[in-house]
Every structure is written in C-alpha cells, then in structure tokens.
Specification:
- 5% of the residues lie in helices and 53% in strands.
- It is mainly beta.
C-alpha cells in the first residue's frame, strides 16, 4: 500500500500543484487534512479529472498505464460574523428624547474592536444594530452624563435573559445571528 504526505509548504513551493510520478496502475485515495482557522467556517470540495466538483476532503482517482490522474481541492473560508443590537429604554421622570444627547455606549471586542455609539445615533425606537461583527464576546458599557438633579438606576438584559443591575454588559455575538443587549435607565427627580 502506497502512502505519501504532501505538506502545505510543499504545495506553496511548487506553485499550488504537486505531481507524483512512478505510481503503479490502480485506484488512489487522496485525503486533504486541513486545520480550521478560528473565526472562519471552512468548506472543502474536490474534483477528479474532468468530473464534477463535489463536497468533501476525500477523493479517489484511478491511475491508468502511462496516464495521469488529477485531483484538485478547493477550500472556501467564510468569516463567521453576526450582529449586535443595542436597545435603550428610558423610564420615570425623563424620556429617551430628553436624554439621548447625554448617553453613549462603548463596545469593545476581540481583535481590538472598539466603537462608541452616541445616544443620538439610536433610532426612534431606541435601537442601534452593528452588523458584520466577527463572532465572539463583546463588552457594552453605557455612560450617562447630565443627570444632575436625578437619581438614575441602570439595568440591562442580554438576549432577553434576567435583568441585571449595572451599566456594563457582556454578550456573545453568534455566527449568523444577533446578540441583543437592552439597557433601561430609570430617572427619578430628586426632591
């Protein structure tokens, strides 16, 4: 039984194609072993000779007398992305319109991602969605200014879960989905 390993480095050196000469006539199974890349979904397909492209990492090719059998593999890496939706609700003695200019959200994530959303960027329903974020964990911190004369109580929910006290939430953005962080501020006028 014949066995040979061709490394990625060998393929690169050879311009992406390697020919193995001197094989006996017969069927040969070619298996591509590929390590995944964090943050990407890998799909692999192959084509034997002039045949159709099919999904998979294992191909069988027949080497004929004096002939050459060709096996071509294609790897498709698709970045794993999702969305993060922020929702802001204001209750008590103020409205969102009253305080939009006094709030902001800082979002930080893996790979150095950082973005600040001003309260004035929220839509009429108090929402803002960031699309095409790399799958991963993100911290959302709300900052409130201009609350003199009011006691402000801040709570949040992540993905519709339980209500937590505080202004910093952590959410996991899933591949192909949306993580939701909902902040609520209750303003009570001090007397």
């Amino acid at each position: 039984s014949y066995s040979k390993t061709v490394t990625g480095a060998e393929l690169l050196t050879a311009g992406g194609s390697v020919q193995i000469d001197g094989l006996a006539v017969g069927d040969y199974t070619v298996v591509e072993t590929v390590a995944g890349i964090t943050g990407y979904t890998l799909t692999t397909s192959h084509k034997v000779g002039s045949g159709s492209k099919v999904d998979g990492k294992t191909a069988t090719a027949a080497v004929s007398n004096g002939g050459t059998a060709e096996v071509a593999f294609t790897n498709n890496y698709k970045k794993q992305v999702g969305s993060l939706k922020l929702t802001k609700t204001v209750s008590g003695d103020k409205t969102l319109a009253d305080v939009a200019a006094d709030i902001s959200f800082k979002i930080a994530g893996s790979n150095g991602y950082s973005k600040t959303i001003a309260g004035t960027e929220l839509d009429a329903s108090g929402s803002y969605t960031i699309d095409n974020l790399a799958k991963g964990t993100y911290t959302v911190k709300e900052t409130v200014t201009g609350s003199t004369g009011y006691t402000v109580t801040t709570t949040y929910k992540v993905d519709g879960g339980s209500t937590e006290a505080g202004a910093t939430a952590t959410a996991a953005v899933p591949n192909g989905g949306t993580a939701e962080v909902a902040f609520t501020n209750n303003y009570k006028k001090q007397v």
